[in-house]
């Protein structure tokens, strides 16, 4: 990671150096070298000095003035300072040129016969130099603005990813205790009825706990493990339901293994047994899990059995499904379809979930 950052920084420095070499060649070398005269050494001193001032202005503006003034809302102070510095550097260059007698030397270079006498300039405004200085300041401001936008965007993405990771961890932490609370209650009820069934149930629960402990720590797990977990859960639920409940299962046995978020299907299956089992009248639970190419399809249906409003399950109703909907939205935002129908003549709770696993 550190080597990658160091390499990125070195490449950035190299790009800056090459860019300044190209700018210097275009602005200060190509033109003068094409002139059909011998230029004095003082001219190249002036070019080198101006190039140094442009580099200093560029990085001073980009790294100091823009962050400390413009990005903090001090726009007028920034503009006033930028214009003052540009005019100041222009006058400084004028003074430097006069100090080394560059105007006179350049006049002699272009009029070696002396047919035209040298006349000093009446004004001290060099529009070309001023425009070059303002251009350097403007480009540095643009570069600083783009870099800040990129940094803000990268930070936003990082914060969003951290928020999503934290929220997913929180949602999974809510789902898992909720599931084990119900399952342990089921096993507890079995201990007073059928010890052998309770032993089998404990064995299945221990296998499921291994899945929860190790697979839910990952962002993704194999689809075969997730479906195997669902099958264990259904078998565990069969141990506690009466003969009045009919379970219709249609689960793909052979499929091309893919990856899926762990514990994503359980709340829909768990909901069937939690709210679709009646001790007084016959009921049917239908669970279908199919895979085709990159699509995973889950369809469940169960009778809506009224719950005791004072029971813990009634108070916790919908926690698992609400959290799972949120997980689907975060993990498969544009890659899933979820349809829940709880208002139909058959008084059934129906779920149709399709996830694109590509």
Automatic annotation (TrEMBL):
Domain Signal transduction histidine kinase internal region: 167-244
InterPro entries in the cross-refs: Bact_2-comp_sensor_kinase, HATPase_C_sf, Sig_transdc_His_kin_internal
A GO CC term assigned to this protein in UniProt: membrane
Record's keyword annotation contains Transmembrane: yes
Keywords: Kinase, Membrane, Transferase, Transmembrane, Transmembrane helix
Parts of the chain that traverse the membrane: 12-31, 43-60, 76-96, 127-146
GO molecular function term, any single one: phosphorelay sensor kinase activity
Descriptive protein name: Histidine kinase
């Amino acid at each position: 990671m550190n080597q990658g950052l160091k390499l990125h920084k070195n490449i950035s420095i190299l790009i800056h150096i090459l860019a300044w070499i190209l700018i210097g060649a275009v602005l200060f070398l190509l033109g003068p070298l094409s002139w059909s005269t011998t230029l004095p050494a003082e001219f190249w001193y002036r070019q080198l000095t101006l190039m140094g001032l442009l580099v200093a202005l560029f990085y001073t503006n980009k790294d100091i003035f823009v962050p400390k003034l413009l990005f903090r809302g001090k726009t007028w102070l920034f503009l006033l300072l930028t214009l003052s510095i540009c005019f100041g550097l222009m006058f400084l260059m004028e003074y430097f040129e006069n100090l080394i007698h560059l105007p006179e030397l350049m006049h002699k270079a272009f009029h070696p016969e002396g047919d035209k006498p040298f006349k000093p300039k009446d004004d001290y405004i060099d529009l070309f130099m001023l425009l070059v200085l303002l251009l350097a300041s403007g480009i540095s401001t643009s570069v600083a603005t783009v870099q800040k936008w990129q940094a803000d965007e990268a930070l936003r993405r990082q914060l969003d990813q951290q928020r999503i990771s934290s929220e997913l961890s929180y949602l999974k932490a809510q789902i898992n205790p909720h599931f084990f609370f119900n399952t342990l209650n089921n096993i507890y009820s079995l201990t007073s009825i059928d010890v052998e069934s309770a032993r089998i149930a404990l064995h299945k629960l221990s296998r499921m706990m291994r899945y929860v402990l190790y697979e839910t720590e990952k962002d993704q797990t194999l689809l075969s493990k997730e479906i195997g977990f669902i099958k264990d859960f259904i078998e565990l639920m069969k141990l506690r339901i009466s003969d009045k409940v009919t379970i219709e299962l249609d689960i793909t046995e052979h499929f091309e293994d893919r990856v899926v978020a762990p514990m994503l299907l359980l709340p829909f299956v768990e909901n069937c047994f939690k709210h679709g089992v009646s001790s007084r009248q016959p009921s049917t639970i239908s669970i279908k899990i199919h895979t085709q190419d990159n699509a995973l399809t889950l369809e469940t249906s169960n009778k809506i059995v009224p719950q005791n409003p004072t029971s813990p399950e009634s108070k916790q109703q919908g926690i698992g499904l609400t959290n799972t909907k949120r997980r689907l939205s975060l993990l498969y935002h544009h890659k899933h379809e979820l349809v829940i129908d709880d208002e139909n003549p058959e008084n059934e709770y129906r779920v149709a979930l399709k996830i694109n696993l590509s």
